[in-house]
Specification:
alpha+beta, four-stranded mixed sheet, single chain, Peroxidase, domain 1, 14% strand, 2 domains, 179 residues, Glutaredoxin
């Protein structure tokens, strides 16, 4: 996510989260935002959203028609507000930030783990348990592979990054040696 887009999306995500908490509809809002983000990310819809020749009414109508039966009245109002403020392109960022806020509220954190080789499910569980103990929160791990790491692991949990990869160690050593 681009930092500029996150800066734009944050107030919307926080406002939606506050409203969802207030009305006890965290899951419903999460589903609505996930749906809207998927729609806004569709190449055809994204082209329409970005087209200045398409008026606001038609953009809102398109999203509301696509979301018919899936969006509450408040979610429809959010769509209209985003259209009015030309913020539809940040829907994926709003959804992502909302999910982070919801996870924090639920006492959980999403952790991205990148390894050079496939992570054994048993090892993934051990890593999740260790991170849960360190962070004091429930941990949801998503893992991926990157052979360029050579070995080791890279962990990203929110703003925290732990680079225990061989490539990271070599890079740090080269940096210290001025290479």
């Amino acid at each position: 996510m681009s930092q500029d887009l996150i800066t734009i999306a944050r107030p919307y995500a926080e406002a939606v989260f506050a409203r969802a908490t207030e009305t006890d509809k965290l899951d419903e809002w999460g589903e609505a935002l996930e749906f809207l983000a998927a729609v806004a990310s569709d190449e055809t819809v994204a082209d329409i959203i970005a087209n200045p020749a398409v008026d606001h009414e038609r953009k809102a109508g398109l999203l509301l028609d696509l979301g018919e039966g899936r969006l509450s009245g408040e979610a429809q109002n959010l769509v209209r507000l985003l259209v009015e403020n030309d913020r539809l392109p940040v829907l994926p960022e709003i959804a992502g930030l909302y999910q982070q806020l919801k996870a924090e509220h639920d006492g959980a954190i999403d952790v991205d783990v990148v390894t050079a080789y496939a992570l054994d499910p048993e090892l993934e569980k051990e890593l999740a348990d260790a991170l849960k103990q360190k962070l004091g929160r429930e941990v949801h791990i998503s893992s991926s592979e990157d052979p360029s790491l050579i070995g080791g692991v890279k962990v990203r949990a929110g703003d925290m990054v732990i680079d225990g990869s061989v490539a990271g160690a070599l890079s740090q050593l080269a940096n210290e040696l001025g290479i």
